[in-house]
Amino acid sequence: MVHAYYRARTYCVTFRNVTRSISVAKLLTKSCSNFLPVRSLAMDTDVACARFTPFSRSWMKSARLSPDAFVQIGLQLAYARLHPNRPPPATYESGTLRRFRLGRTETIRSCSAESVAFTKAMADDTISDSQKCKILRKAIEQHQRYTKMAVSGNGFDRHLLGLRLIAADSGQQTPSFFIDPTYGTANHFLLSTSQITGRQDFGVSFGPVSPDGYGFCYNLQGHHINLMASAFKSKTPNNSARNLLISFAASLLDMRRLLESSE
């Protein structure tokens, strides 16, 4: 038997005279029980990565396109092609609020009416390539507008989060707005995305935030893009991180063809 307690905040086990005893066996059992769910989660996560050389930040800049917007619209098209029978996915992109004191992040919602119009147009053979190109540019421009609005402090997700936390901290009942099914659907992010910025040539990955969703991370370099995708194997068997990257690569190539054919 050992006398132990967990020191709050540091979580270090120290030995002191305390009022109760904890057996080593119980401590080990607790540690193992904490480890097993994590191991199970890791084994259930499907991760794929790739270096995509046909595209780069340099090419997108030369085509007078926002690199981030181009990638995000490409991801919308990739998802629509991979899951044609699913509705458009609520999409989270992390936007920085570091220009503000104590600022952290705001949600950039990449799925828009314009992006949906583009993904539908790409599946319609009766629409000409020139018209598809116009719809693509509208989708890219809309993403740029929303991004600018979000990182300027005019997004709504963090505002609503603040209101919900204020209600919780003050002991109020959760307002009906936050338990409305529409609000739940809007925040069930099937695509959780983030761009890693910087000159360093590396990639990182994170898991999906929804059981039936994907995680998608990208690092735009001068001559290529580092891509990382993740999905859960058991939750939604039809989800595949590798297939998402394949669909994404094909989507970017098709978008590039549209833009070059309209020049």
Automatic annotation (TrEMBL):
PANTHER family: CARNITINE O-ACETYL-TRANSFERASE, ISOFORM A-RELATED (PTHR22589:SF103), CARNITINE O-ACYLTRANSFERASE (PTHR22589). One of its GO terms (cellular component) is peroxisome. Residues 39-240 form the Choline/carnitine acyltransferase domain. Belongs to the carnitine/choline acetyltransferase family. InterPro entries: Carn_acyl_trans, CAT-like_dom_sf, Cho/carn_acyl_trans. It comes from Schistocephalus solidus. GO terms for molecular function: carnitine O-acetyltransferase activity. The lineage of its organism: Eukaryota, Metazoa, Spiralia, Lophotrochozoa, Platyhelminthes. It comes from the Eukaryota. One of its GO terms (biological process) is carnitine metabolic process, CoA-linked. This is Choline/carnitine acyltransferase domain-containing protein. It holds the Pfam family Carn_acyltransf.
